[in-house]
Amino acid sequence: MSGTPTRHVPCQKSSSTPCGAPEGRQSGVRGCDLDSTGDSTYSLLSPIYHDSFESASEDQEEPRPQPDPPPSHSCDIKPSDGTKKHKAKTLIRMELERSPSVEFDLTAWEEWIVRKAREERTEMQKRALKEMALKEEKMEKEKDLERKKIAAEEKLRDWLQVKKQQEKLENEMKRSKELEEMESKEQKRRETEEKAQQQYKEWLKKKKQEEMEKKQKEKEEASKREAELKERRRKAEEKFQEWLKSAKDKPRPVSNSFAYSNGKLTGYYDGTSYPAPSFYNPIPWKPIHNPPPEDSLKKNSIRKNKKPSSSALYRQTPAVSCKPKDSLTVGSSQKHRR
């Protein structure tokens, strides 16, 4: 049997009705009046609405939920020619689902329609199963994503907790390390301070010892100087006493004074005058030579240049070194003469 059977086209009937279809089957149609759909639609629906129709492949397929029957008001509306075939297929599919145990002697066209409806139903079931599988897969993926999200959140929470614990431990270790460093610094500072105090005490002790030694030395030197001074005084006193003893026996010097008498220097006794000295310097006294400053030399040279020299008018007298009369020498000589 071919996929699409041939159709006979009578004068009064539709081209979609196969030949040899009995017309007396209209009495077996149930439901609403289908005269408005034409003879072709009736020929398609007449074996389906019989109670004894049964599909050969229904025993192998699982029963599906039956859809609701079409509304009754659709029977009163006359469909267009383009929608007749689609409506017939829908009605056939619905009737096949309602009465799976009906068996008829179908024509080639009817068998093709039934097979086509069955294929469409199978395709719809496959599509529905596929959509359901896709939906289940999508739901499973969503559940998997949700589980992964929850697991990731739990891991993140655990990681944050571990990180927080690690940071807490690190902070405690850092704080303990800082405390240890502070304690070590404080200990070092105390040791340095104690060492400085010890050194200061040693220095102070040494300084006091040095001061005591210095005072002792000064005291010893003072006592030594005092003893030396006493010894000198004692010796001086002894010398003085010796001198006193020997001075009584020595002749006293004559207190002479000098004067001019008749143009001559003569000596005479004067108790109020001092005795003649026993020693005198034979070299006469000379003044110390001090060179004049440079400014005075310049001024003198300028003056000499401005004024003519008048030294030729006057005769320069030579410097005569006159020895002054020394009364002491005269007195001493007279004393020796006496």
Entry summary:
With 338 residues, this protein is mostly helical. It has five helices and four strands; from the N terminus they run αβαβαββαα.
Strand content: under 5%
Uncertain stretches of 5 or more adjacent residues: 1-79, 309-314, 316-338
Oligomer: single chain
Distance between the termini: 207 Å
Give the biggest beta sheet.
2 strands, antiparallel
Largest sheet, order of strands side by side? 1-2
User: What is the molecular shape?
Assistant: rod-shaped
Report the C-alpha radius of gyration, rounded.
83 Å
What structural class results from the helix and strand content? mainly alpha
**Count of individual beta strands:** 4
Helix coverage percent: 55-70%
Q: What number is the mean pLDDT?
A: 69
Give the SSE string.
Answer: HEHEHEEHH
